[in-house]
Fold this protein.
Amino acid sequence: MTDQPAFEFEQALQQLETLVQQMEEGNLTLEQSLQAFEQGVGLTRQCQQALTQAEQRVHVLLEQNGQSVAQPFVASERT
């Protein structure tokens, strides 16, 4: 077991949205903007890795008789 806390995808997305909003407002110094950008890149990489892992888990779950069965993704509409 590791002592690292579990990665929270939704929390990371919220942090990214906050960073983007701060940068778009234009009130940050150059140094603050660079730090926000760097943090955003790191969060983006973590989110991409989490999505890749989730995709791999879905493929494993869809595996039938040792062969992967491709299933189209259909997003449900939210109201």
About this structure: The chain has a mean pLDDT of 82.
